[in-house]
Amino acid sequence: MTTATYDDHADWYNAYMSPSSGGEFIDRLHTMLRELLGPGEGLCLDVCCGTGAHAAPAAALGWTPVGIDLSHGQLRHAAGRLPVAQGDATALPLADDSVPAAICVLASTDVPDYAAMLREIARVLTPGGRFVHLGVHPCFIGAFADWSEGTRIVVNERYADRSRTLDSWNPAGVRARVGAWHVPLADLLNATLAAGLRLERTTETGSGGIPDLFGFTAVKPRPATPRTTSAAPAALAHDRRLPSNR
Ligand SMILES: C[S@@+](CC[C@H](N)C(=O)[O-])C[C@H]1O[C@@H](n2cnc3c(N)ncnc32)[C@H](O)[C@@H]1O
């Protein structure tokens, strides 16, 4: 079941994601977004768009961003930045094969069934369309990871725990405020492949040596075209001339 958890936190989240308070983190996020999405034209669906913090970099690449999010509170802020609709990422109100690009940023910890969302994104992408996932690094950010020492991250056995929790080493962070799910790295990549998307590129960054963000580009394959070229019969004839022991 999905709930608009962010309604009560939208003003705080809008300030948190503003360039003045987000600083280096948001700059880095947007650098990754530019690298993974690349330039293009047409609609770019920002799934779980939140307050619309990524509309400007997507538009600067030539895309026309449109956002969808569950939370009316978040969309109140986003509406000034891009056209938006309220809706569930796991039941997108869009036709099959209808958008050339989609992004989902910092929401793998918020959507209860991220695999279902990936399937929906794969459904609505046009063949050849691209999807960019950007999120907290699944190996180093979670209730299982203690960053309080700064240069040494302590990861414990809770890495395998996929359930939602408000537990965090940082009482002032998003996780302690709204809670977070955990999608281990292999689950994330396997769910992307199971959705029928082809991984093209992955990237990870951190402000120091340890990455706190992980992202990838995945593409919806074009259907294979049947081989009906005039060369085919000739090739078959050629094959028939091959020695039988080949
Ligand atoms: C951490 S915020 C990220 C917002 C934005 N992408 C960003 O990077 O700032 C996570 C967002 O996911 C949204 N969300 C969670 N579950 C959702 C669902 N099933 N469908 C649509 N939006 C959802 C929340 O309302 C929230 O705005």
Please explain how this structure is put together:
By secondary structure, this protein is an alpha/beta fold. It has one domain: Vaccinia Virus protein VP39 (Rossmann fold), CATH 3.40.50. It contains 8 helices and 9 strands. It has helices at 10-16, 19-37, 55-60, 72-78, 114-124, 174-178, 185-194, 231-240; strands at residues 43-47, 64-69, 84-86, 99-105, 125-136, 145-146, 154-155, 198-205, 213-219. Strands 3-2-1-4-5-9-8 form a 7-stranded mixed beta sheet, sandwiched between helices. It has a two-stranded antiparallel sheet with strand order 6-7. Helix 5 runs parallel beside helix 7. The longest helix has 19 residues, at 19-37. The chain starts with 9 loop residues before the first helix and ends in a 6-residue tail after the last helix. The model is unreliable at 233-246 (pLDDT under 50).
Q: What are the defining features of this structure?
A:
two-stranded antiparallel ribbon, 246 residues, 8 helices
